[in-house]
Specification:
Elements: H1 5-14, E1 18-22, E2 25-29, H2 36-44, H3 46-52, H4 55-75, H5 82-99, H6 101-119
Antiparallel strand pairs: 1-2
Helix pairs in contact: 1-3, 1-6, 4-5, 4-6, 5-6
């Protein structure tokens, strides 16, 4: 398998994987065994995957997390400073350009899932206890 690191991560994310990168160590948690071709691709591209999971990703995750927090506050009737919202949006666009749109989308959906696990709230609409979670197709993605 000779997939790009971003495509590998997108496939892993579709399978419900969560990633942890520290130095030269890459940990991937998945709910079931990986297909052999995907596992081979991960082993082959480990260094590239570690690079992709580096700094812009951490910053992008934090920006998405703040966006989700603002969404929940607004859904709860609290006033959101429009200047903060605009600045955060521009920052996310900048980070998306740096990370690449495919990777940024992968980080978005993973962080959205993590936000829901951590808060039980939806980062897209601010709702609580959806029976069916939002998915990329719901937003035209």
């Amino acid at each position: 398998m000779n997939s790009s690191p971003a495509l590998l991560i997108a496939r892993l994310t579709e399978l419900g994987a969560r990633f942890t990168a520290a130095g030269d160590r890459l940990r991937i948690e998945v709910p079931r065994a990986l297909p052999s071709d995907l596992l081979a691709g991960v082993r082959e591209r480990k260094g590239d995957l570690l690079l992709l999971l580096a700094t812009p990703t951490i910053t992008l995750r934090a920006a998405y997390r703040r966006w989700f927090e603002l969404t929940v506050l607004e859904a709860d009737g609290q006033h959101i400073d429009p200047a903060e919202s605009r600045a955060l949006h521009q920052y996310i666009v900048k980070l998306t350009d740096e990370a690449g749109p495919l990777w940024a989308d992968t980080v978005f959906w993973d962080e959205l899932q993590r936000f829901r696990w951590d808060t039980t709230r939806c980062g897209i609409c601010g709702g609580l206890g959806h029976d069916i979670p939002h998915s990329p197709g719901d937003l035209g993605g």
